[in-house]
Amino acid sequence: MRDTPERHHNAADRTVKDIRRKTRKRYSSEDKIRIVLAGLRGEDTIAELCRQEGIAQSQYYSWSKEFMEAGRKRLAGDTAREANMRMERSIFGKIAKYMFILFNIIMLIALIFLSPSIDEFDVSSPELYKNEEKLSQFMLTGTLMYFLFFVWAVGDLILGVWVLCTRPKK
Prior knowledge:
Layout: H1 5-23, H2 29-41, H3 46-53, H4 57-84, H5 91-119, H6 127-130, H7 132-165
């Protein structure tokens, strides 16, 4: 087989393309971003910018499109992440919450243990008022119950405000 000029022409074209492919300038992502941002600033026309950078306008527009799509995806991802993110209390908030629960349990237990002693007294019986010892026990138990409810109310108010102030914020 003889070499035809057509064959030489195709082989030469392939060789030139391979050389161009291997010697083509590769742009880093920082360079692409810099070029796209320069085009968005609008100080120079896109054609002028592309001439200065040595790229085709079509290359600039494809980079610009990739840049915008990446920004849009990133912003959409952040919104989804914020919507799915569960807010948690700080360590002080957790301590406040558990102290509030523990305080209410302790006060409830104290109320349960003091209640049977009140049932021992029959308020309608005149003997209660004649026996000074039973009357003083009754008054002491009543005073303790009043004090218990007062401490419970004030403690709940203070701890409740603390829990409210340490709740997670958006």
